[in-house]
């Protein structure tokens, strides 16, 4: 990238890294952002009981296993790209690229909703945002402003997320305290099985408790990732579950609202019934600000994922170019452009679609986790799930079954749309290989180095002194070989004898 690229890289190395508290906040916004959106679980569950049980049980069979797998793999591969590196190391570059494409595509679609939801909360108090003449400029202004915040540096995004999280959760702490004298525990046990909507219930639970792996795409920007990541994931699990259960326990225990009234935004009405108009306004403002935090966390993950894929040789090198603030300029612009073009879509239209694509990607991640335990027992794992391989496989079984269940509940439309996206990914990979062979674009061909915040003594998979055989992911994933030799088998042949220590 020449002298300019070298200067940007040097500045990136000295730019502030994510510490524990900002990382917890970013994971919180990757996964949750607060209780906004969990109202549908009460309606779809026919009452409070199944909603409360869901947010007690689902974290045990889904969130905790996913967080543990993420902690082990993110600290073993502490580079930008996250799950793309894991899949590539286990199954080769083709499947690594597919994983990256599915996750980026669904992430951009998901992110397009947050500016829309931000205005949807505000329009209750400012009806002008119902009109296109005000709504369209506001959507563009919000997207551009938040994109610029991402451009200015990940540490700024991290500390912004901390402030937004505090502001978004405070009204629910107040609501919980005000509701205590009015709580009747027997109201938590209400369930009307005639009103059960299993598809809506499982999709709501799944969407509100997934994306624990998203922060792994920022691993190369984390200070001391081998220690920071496990602590951050543990703290985020507690924060996310508490942010769901406390408002639900307070509101359903204090009020006898029928389940049919529980839809998106109903917590604002609950606030008015428990505390008054001032609490309703506070919750509306918190919901709006939470959507800003969700946007920031999602865009950071999407952009740094593209940067990581470029550093691995999967995408043209322009995706890895950094600004003077250490942020991937072109990757941010690419993600923001997708957000602008997709912001007309509604949450209801794409929830199932996002869950379906995410479920496929997670099944591949669990498979990679188990295969790497078998295939690379010598891999240096700074944090290791305290289970042997058989126990690790059992750990992945309940969440895998849940993923299959969510996919089976999807509509035919979701199957068709997801099939088109998957086919597009299958076609993109050989196209990029051809572009590399014909030199239509510049690709990085060198092995990805250590993340800028990781010393050689740190727990890096790429150049660890005790590692005998390098991983496939440490080789350029769109190498100079002819495209016919780019399968996993050829990658393994290339890797033999590479980076042998001492």
UniProtKB/TrEMBL annotation:
Chain segments annotated as coiled-coil in the UniProt record: none
InterPro entries according to UniProt: AA/rel_permease1, RMV1-like
A Pfam family annotated for this UniProt entry: AA_permease_2
Keywords: Cell membrane, Membrane, Symport, Transmembrane, Transmembrane helix, Transport
GO terms for cellular component: plasma membrane
Topology of this chain in the membrane: Multi-pass membrane protein
GO MF, any single term: symporter activity
Keyword presence, Nucleotide-binding: no
Taxonomic superkingdom: Eukaryota
TM spans (from-to): 20-38, 50-69, 81-98, 134-151, 157-178, 232-254, 266-283, 329-347, 353-370, 390-409, 415-433
Intracellular or extracellular location(s): Cell membrane
Entry similarity comment: Belongs to the amino acid-polyamine-organocation (APC) superfamily. Polyamine:cation symporter (PHS) (TC 2.A.3.12) family.
UniProt xrefs under PANTHER family: OS12G0580400 PROTEIN, POLYAMINE TRANSPORTER PUT1
UniProt protein name: Amino acid permease family protein
UniProt lineage: Eukaryota, Viridiplantae, Streptophyta, Embryophyta, Tracheophyta
């Amino acid at each position: 990238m020449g002298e300019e690229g070298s200067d940007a890289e040097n500045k990136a190395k000295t730019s502030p890294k994510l510490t524990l508290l900002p990382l917890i906040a970013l994971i919180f916004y990757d996964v949750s952002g607060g209780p906004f959106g969990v109202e549908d679980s009460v309606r779809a569950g026919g009452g409070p009981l199944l909603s409360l049980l869901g947010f007690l049980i689902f974290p045990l069979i889904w969130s905790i296993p996913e967080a543990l797998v993420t902690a082990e793999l993110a600290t073993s591969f502490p580079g930008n790209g996250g799950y793309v590196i894991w899949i590539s190391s286990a199954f080769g570059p083709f499947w690594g690229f597919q994983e990256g494409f599915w996750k980026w595509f669904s992430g951009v679609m998901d992110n397009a909703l947050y500016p829309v939801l931000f205005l949807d909360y505000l329009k209750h108090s400012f009806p002008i945002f119902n009109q296109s003449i005000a709504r369209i400029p506001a959507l563009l202004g919000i997207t551009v402003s938040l994109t610029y915040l991402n451009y200015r540096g990940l540490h700024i995004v991290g500390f912004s997320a901390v402030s937004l999280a505090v502001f978004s959760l405070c009204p629910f702490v107040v609501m919980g305290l005000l509701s205590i004298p009015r709580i009747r525990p027997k109201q938590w046990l209400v369930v009307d099985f005639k009103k059960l909507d299993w598809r809506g219930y499982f999709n709501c639970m799944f969407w509100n408790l997934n994306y624990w792996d998203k922060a792994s795409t920022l691993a190369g920007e984390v200070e001391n990732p081998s220690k920071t990541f496990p602590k951050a994931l543990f703290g985020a699990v507690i924060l996310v579950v508490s942010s769901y259960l406390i408002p639900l326990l307070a509101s359903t225990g204090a009020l006898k609202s029928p389940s049919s009234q529980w839809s998106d935004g109903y917590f604002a009405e609950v606030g008015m019934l428990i505390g008054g108009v001032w609490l309703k306004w506070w919750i509306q403002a918190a919901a709006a600000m939470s959507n800003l935090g969700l946007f920031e966390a999602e865009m950071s993950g999407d952009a740094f994922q593209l940067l990581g894929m470029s550093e691995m040789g999967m995408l043209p090198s322009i995706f890895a170019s950094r600004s003077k603030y250490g942020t991937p300029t072109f990757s941010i612009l690419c993600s923001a452009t997708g957000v602008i073009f997709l912001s007309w879509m509604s949450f209801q239209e794409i929830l199932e679609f996002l869950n379906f694509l995410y479920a496929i990607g997670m099944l591949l991640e669990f498979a990679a986790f188990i295969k790497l335990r078998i295939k690379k027992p010598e891999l240096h794992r700074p944090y290791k799930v305290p289970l042997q391989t058989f126990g690790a496989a059992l750990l992945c079984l309940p969440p895998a079954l849940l993923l299959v269940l969510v996919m089976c509940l999807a509509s035919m439309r979701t199957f068709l749309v997801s099939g088109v996206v998957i086919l597009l990914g299958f076609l993109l990979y050989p196209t990029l290989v051809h572009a590399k062979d014909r030199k239509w674009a510049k690709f990085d061909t060198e092995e990805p180095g250590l993340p800028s915040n990781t010393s050689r003594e740190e727990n890096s998979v790429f150049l660890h002194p005790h590692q005998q055989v390098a991983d496939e992911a440490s080789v350029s994933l769109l190498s100079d070989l002819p495209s016919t030799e780019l399968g996993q088998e050829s990658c393994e042949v290339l890797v033999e004898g590479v980076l042998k220590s001492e």
